[in-house]
Amino acid sequence: MRRGLKIFLFFSFSIGISLLPLRGQKLPSGEDIYNAYREFRNFKADSGEVIIVKDLILKKDIVEIKLNGEFLKLKPLLGQEIGGIFSGNGVISFSPAPPLEKKQLIRFTGKERFEEEFNKAIIFFSDNTFTQIKEKSSVSEVRPSEKIISYWNDFVKMMHDKRKVNFEARFLAGLVNSEQGFTMYFDTEKYGKFIFSIDPMADEEISLVNYSPEDFYDIWCSFHFIQEYQHSYYSVYHNKNLGDVLKTEIYTEVDKDGLLSGKTLIEFSAKRDGVRMLNVDLAPSLRVSKVTNKDRELKFIQEDKKKDSQLWIILDEPLQFGKEYEISFNYKEEKGDDTIIEKTGDNNFFVSKRTSWFPNFYNFNNKCLYEMTFKVPAKYQVIATGRLINKYKDGDFSIWEFNTEIPFPRAGFSYGKFISKTKRDDKIAIECFSNPDLDDALRGIQILLEQSPELQQEVGFAPTALNTTKLLESVLNEVYFALKSFTIYYGDLPYSYIAVTQQSAGGFGQSWPTLIYLPFTSFLPASVRYQLHSMSNEIYDVGFYREVGPHEIAHQWWGNATTERTYHDEWISEGFSQFSAGLFLQLTKKLKDYLDFLENEKNEIIFKGRSGKRVNDEGPIWLGRRLYSHKSPEALNLIYSKGGYVLHMLRQMMKDKAGSDERFIAMMKEFFKTYTLKDVTTEGFKKIVEKHMIPEMDMDNNGKMDWFFNQWVYGTDIPEYEYSYKIEKIDKEKYLFRLKMVQKNEIKDFKMPVPIYLQFKGKILRLGRMFIKSGESAVVLKTELPAKPDKVLPNAFNDVLCIMKEVKWVD
Predict the structure, then answer these.
(1) In terms of pTM, does the model score above 0.85?
(2) Long-range interactions of 298-306: CB distance < 8 A, separation 24+
(3) Average pLDDT, the chain
(4) Of 99, 221, 255, 345, which cross-links 439 as Cys (Cβ 3.0–4.6 Å)?
(5) Weakly modelled stretches of the chain, pLDDT under 70
């Protein structure tokens, strides 16, 4: 998704608590598990047993927790102790092993060690924690204090009503899925609320999160167990998927009120033994009526749609590794203000819940084949991922059938009344759709214009200019050219058809496999958009519209045909797509437009954000979504702007003196071919770069690009250069050219090749590269020229992300 518009952050709630079943103990039935959930859900703190803990030290990997005070035990579940409520004096302390995580603590606290006191906490556990508690505790005869009871009640209300998280179901899942974990919710005086978690199913097992009930969820630290870091801080990965989805069949009905109902069948192969509960992503408005495992009906959990409505299913038997299963869901939408399809005007609709309009599993590899059938009112159309294989009338409704010939990472659709145009060649067909009727936003502006000739004169266009179909062919041609251009640079897509659809949102685009959503404003003339920009916050400036289309088109390569393995690799899909937007500008617009784009991207990296710090200094792009915090929300944009800059710098280094992209294209094509229909990784990309690097890029003389990735992907430094030059006439046809450059800011072991360009009669030529290293004296470039250059342009194309300053020449 293009940044700076609507940014949706989805953080899966992972409290990481679990318990292995006791030996000899009978496995609980689905009914037993469901009853345990209801029992936990109804727990009252005034009925628990209080024990006194004294000088208790809990050691969790590198984290130490000290407790002195009262501990109210939660009622055991399925015969196991599960946690309790603490009141007293507590201290948690640790210093993470990875240097990057130390820097993140400095980002939030100013220190690389976290050590905070707390006087109340809620603790869930499934390891040997209770054994440790018993060794340092004594049973108390007192009743639970009002302080403890109130703390528990407030916690439950906060989780259910404000954070909308069903922590009871998540805890129970860990318990019956044979995980191991520990989680503590605690409050500090200085920083507020925290979650410390050891979750075996998370990307990194240990995490510290600072949060508020409704406003923010900032991940301060996230790292592996200490023994995982024997060889590298950046390449540790364990596949923790519970299963591989093989096929998803979706049947969807949309009634005349726009409400959705349906049935979904998911076929998958289990990748882990013993799992009893599965978390399902499904929009809260879709209420489940039945879940079955083939012919056997399953218990499920789904609370009030306005509260903690996450869907959990309880399997009637444990999963067996390698065995294939078929789980089906029946569901129907309730009326409300959070429906899947939002009506946005005459025959215009907006599909809002694009990842949860059908059931799909968390913690699964969801790349699979899709078969989708839609039954909708006959006057409307469905545009969906995959290929339309059949369409027919059924009374007042029409049936639309789609399928995919290769696995897709996700599925989606657009809905409404459209007209379309198609362009095709021997490899791909592109169909572009727009709405002949105006949505409410444009219709409102049209009415204002119709009522005010003065306003028409002021904005410079008539009401009839608000038409999203007139430029349909122009949009189609631009999409086609972008696809063909990116094919030259990245290789052929594995798709034979792409649909591009107008959506009733003026300020963002999105890209699903074979389905691209563009804002309705992309279908309006640029002059109209410019005027609308001053009239509505949803209408963005011309720069956005130059980028949004190519960016979303590039996601067909980066984010759809390839997908990131973990959040650490998100910069590849977003950054490469943003780079592609700039590439398209270079190919289709004036040089100034391209240079302005690069300068704007640079400014987004180096400007000071809400925190008062330079955005780039909030963290490296390898942190992905963790760059976001409520104090520095702009930092998330780095995976777009700086991610794109990383690829731009590699491209510039690989150009030959004539400016050819041949070597860069070969690298990108191999990378895409290697990872088509697979998960990309940062280290995987680095290996491809090393395979194609040229001698000038081997700055450590070891055939590796560690120096570059450590600086730009895993680091946050930006060099500041000073240069000066002197041109002296030697004779009638010769000039002596000298240029000095030095890195002024102290950055340990920083190095970059900086290109020097000269302009002669309007033409820019690369003279050479200067290899600048931090801590070294000025590098001098000296050469003879046949003519005096009009301009001296170090880093003319923002080849290096840097601050460049010219100073006076001193001999």
Answers:
(1) yes
(2) 298/30, 298/327, 299/30, 299/31, 299/33, 299/34, 301/34, 301/37, 301/166, 301/169, 303/160, 303/166, 305/334, 305/336, 305/338
(3) 92
(4) 345
(5) 1-25, 533-543
